[in-house]
Specification:
This protein has two helices and no strands. With 81 residues, it is an all-alpha fold. The chain has a domain of 36 residues. Helix 1 crosses helix 2.
């Protein structure tokens, strides 16, 4: 009695509309701010902080202090087991 030939083909083909085709690219752009006015307001705030940091004003001093505190907290020698 002869053995039937086995194939590697599946009896059930996957539906191409269910399984997405893989893509290699950046994800679609998501927006954090729903309106242009909110985006502009946030951009103004960041611009102000950047100017403060560059001018060595009070915000820059606070940011430097926070950065130094974080570096001390993350220092391996200061960590306990």
């Amino acid at each position: 009695m002869a053995c039937p030939l086995l194939t590697t083909r599946s009896d059930v083909d996957p539906a191409l509309d269910i399984i997405p085709f893989p893509i290699a690219g950046p994800p679609p752009r998501s927006t954090i701010f729903p309106t242009q006015a909110e985006s502009d307001s946030a951009r103004k705030g960041l611009t102000y902080l950047n100017q403060e940091a560059k001018s060595h004003g009070p915000t820059a001093a606070k940011l430097q202090k926070v950065l130094q505190d974080l570096k001390e907290l993350l220092n391996d020698q200061n960590l306990t087991e």
